[in-house]
Amino acid sequence: MPANRFAAISSEPNILTDIYREEINLSVWQCTLSQALNSEVADLLNTASELQLSIALTPEQTIDELRGASALFADKPALSAHLAMLVDMFCTLFELKRAGLRLTLLNKAMCPKFHVDHIPCRLVSTLGGVASQWLPHDKVDRSKLGLGSKGKKDHESGIYSCGSDIQQLNTGDVALLKGSGWLGNEQGALVHRSPAPAAGETRLLLTLDFID
């Protein structure tokens, strides 16, 4: 078991650089979405039946690639600009030429059980709907991850002690989740899961990953 891991949370975007600190496994910029962006996201949630984009792109290409990938972006300038900004921040922070962007409309939990990602780091941001849940490092029984849960649901497996241990991101938050693929963080990866949206509710979820 590594020394404790902590979350770094701030309304300032430069908090994201804290992900490089050994003791940090979650870095969250509490980003307030503009009225224009919220309006475009609401329109997308209300009118699009499905959206499942998966694109490798450079920061300079983001807006053109989005418009090329889906006609939905023709009238979404605020959303396009926001995504381009996040791709630029992610690539700059990790010195990447490109990022792997996934933008998905979800009406069910994509990863409903608490788990860790076996990658170095992932950016996660819920732009509409209910946001991701996570467990503080000192509240997790890691022996109950994966097969250790013996097929039981999270509230039955003992992975956490009580419901108040579960923390939740806010819509608009830009979060960097450090995985087990980060050197020195093999036993300290952030434990997280997708929330189950309420009946009839949809989420718009963005993830950015390393691809080269």
- The helix tally amounts to 4
- The percent range for strand residues is 25-35%
Question: Low-confidence stretches at least 5 residues in length (pLDDT < 50)?
Answer: none
Query: Structural class from helices and strands?
Result: alpha+beta
CATH topology: Jelly Rolls
Output mean pLDDT: 92
Number of strands: 10
| Pattern of helices and strands | EEHEHHEEEHEEEE
Distance between the termini: 30 Å
Highest-level CATH class: Mainly Beta
Instruction: State the domain count.
Output: 1
Assembly category: single chain
Shape: globular
Biggest sheet strand line-up = 1-2-8-5-10-4-3
Report the CATH architecture.
Sandwich
Q: What is the helix content? A: 10-25%
How are the SSEs ordered, and which strands pair?
Layout: E1 6-10, E2 24-29, H1 35-47, E3 52-57, H2 62-69, H3 77-94, E4 99-106, E5 121-128, E6 133-135, H4 154-157, E7 167-168, E8 174-178, E9 191-193, E10 203-210
Parallel strand pairs: 1-2
Antiparallel strand pairs: 2-8, 3-4, 4-10, 5-8, 5-10, 6-7, 6-9
Structural description of this entry:
By secondary structure, this protein is α+β, with helices and mostly antiparallel strands. The chain has one domain: Jelly Rolls (Sandwich), CATH 2.60.120. Helices cover 20% and strands 25% of the residues. The protein contains 4 helices and 10 strands. The protein has helices at residues 35-47, 62-69, 77-94, 154-157, and strands spanning 6-10, 24-29, 52-57, 99-106, 121-128, 133-135, 167-168, 174-178, 191-193, 203-210. It has a 7-stranded mixed sheet with strand order 1-2-8-5-10-4-3. The longest helix has 18 residues, at 77-94. The mean pLDDT is 92. InterPro entries: DUF1826 (IPR014955). This is Succinylglutamate desuccinylase. It holds the Pfam family DUF1826.
